[in-house]
Amino acid sequence: MDALTNRPVRSDDVLALGPLIVKFFRGRWCPYCTTELEIWRDVYQEIRRRGAFFVAISPQTRRHNDFTVQQHELPFPVLSDPGAKVAHEYGAGYTIPDAHREYYKGILVNIPFVNSGVMYPKATEESWRLPVPAVFVIRQDGTIAFSQGFADFRVRPEPAEVLAALDAL
After folding, report:
1. What is the pLDDT of residues 86-133, one digit of tens each?
2. Cβ-count burial 4-41 (b if 16+ within 10 Å, e if not)
């Protein structure tokens, strides 16, 4: 669901109009993610000039995605992916290990609440799922022209590489 319109966004519908860039991000609580989203905001007009579309996807609730859109003035759709199911289909989803869960609790980042609205005692495995920060460029025929993601959340795909992949389509 799109955070602003509360409408579903189907990749088939978007691909009928042009290539699609899919950006998976962890959440608004991640400073690396929000900085990267702001960079994509600044590059967005270049993407549109190339006839492509851009969506950002996170496991956050629609409300938290809406906060992200408003706070960072994002011009592109930000979609909710409960349980990081779509990210998993792309090979980019994972469940946070127990030791890391304790770390996030220790720094007061309540991932289950941001992802599903539940507090720690009622957190499910699904609410502890995240995507690795990844970018995919999808051709209009549905095939992937470019993909890049890193297990180290501090390392991000470069927009220049993504734009070059668009130019090669």
Report:
1. 999 999 999 999 999 999 999 999 999 999 988 888 889 999 999 999
2. eeeeebeeeebbeebbbbbbbbbbbbbeebbebbeebb
Give 131-156 as a DSSP string.
E-SEEEEE-TTS-EEEEEE-SSTT--
Amino acid, res. 83? G
* HEC letters along 27-41: CCCCHHHHHHHHHHH
Token pair for 161: 């590489």
Task: Express the helix, strand and coil content of the chain in percent, nearest 5 each.
Answer: 45, 20, 40
Amino acid identity, position 48: R
CB contact at 8 A, 168 and 160: no
User: Which residues on adjacent β-strands are paired with residue 94?
Assistant: 130
Would you give the end-to-end CA distance of the chain in angstroms? 28
